[in-house]
């Protein structure tokens, strides 16, 4: 069973209400990449009328985590996942919208298969870049994910 953007957005509404109400939405997902977008609105802005950094972080994390979740489900694996570290780099204020793109799906799949075959925990750093509506890089995040087989 493969996840679609609409299924993931339904999952967000049910399980991540703060992200849903902040406007975080999966725009597309395939085996190689995930694209997540969030618009600046009165609900997610800071006092400087730009998007609050934590909202950007939710969208960024989802662009990496959704790839892992879909790979785990598609490959029918029993693997847990957890963010163990993250860092963000902010280059410009987000005044309209930001679109995060993570394109490390192939790397994730290889690491999941290694996790399954060795039964040892693995670590992967996933990078996602955020672009404004003009296509300018405005922010980037790196999330370190821990992947472990469940017994």
List the helices and strands and how they pair.
Layout: H1 5-15, H2 17-22, E1 25-29, E2 34-39, H3 53-74, E3 79-90, E4 97-102, H4 105-118, E5 122-131, E6 137-149
Antiparallel strand pairs: 1-2, 2-4, 3-6, 4-5, 5-6
Helix pairs in contact: 3-4
CATH superfamily: Hotdog Thioesterase
SS element count, helices: 4
The chain-level mean pLDDT equals 94
Major beta sheet, strand line-up: 1-2-4-5-6-3
Which structural category do the helix and sheet elements fall into?
A: alpha+beta
CATH topology heading: Thiol Ester Dehydrase, Chain A
3D architecture notes:
The structure is a single chain. The chain has 151 residues and is α+β, with helices and mostly antiparallel strands. The chain has a single domain (5-149), classed as Hotdog Thioesterase (Thiol Ester Dehydrase, Chain A), CATH 3.10.129. The protein is built from four helices and six strands; from the N terminus they run ααββαββαββ. The protein has helices spanning 5-15, 17-22, 53-74, 105-118; strands at 25-29, 34-39, 79-90, 97-102, 122-131, 137-149. A six-stranded antiparallel beta sheet has the order 1-2-4-5-6-3. A hairpin with a 4-residue loop joins β1 (25-29) and β2. α3 crosses α4. The chain is elongated. It starts with a helix and ends with a strand. The mean pLDDT is 94.
């Amino acid at each position: 069973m493969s996840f679609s953007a609409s299924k993931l957005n339904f999952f967000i509404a049910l399980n991540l209400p703060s992200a849903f109400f902040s406007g975080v939405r999966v725009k597309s997902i395939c085996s190689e990449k995930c694209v997540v977008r969030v618009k600046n609105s009165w609900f997610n802005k800071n006092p400087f009328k730009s998007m609050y950094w934590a909202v950007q972080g939710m969208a960024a994390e989802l662009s990496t985590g959704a790839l892992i979740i879909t790979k785990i489900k598609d490959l029918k694996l029993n693997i847990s996942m957890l963010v163990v570290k993250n860092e963000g780099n902010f280059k410009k204020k987000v005044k309209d919208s930001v679109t995060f793109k993570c394109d490390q799906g192939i790397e994730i799949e290889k690491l999941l298969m290694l996790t399954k075959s060795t039964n040892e925990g693995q670590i992967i750093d996933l990078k996602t870049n955020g672009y404004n509506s003009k296509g300018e890089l405005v922010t980037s995040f790196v999330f370190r994910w821990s992947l472990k087989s469940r017994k």
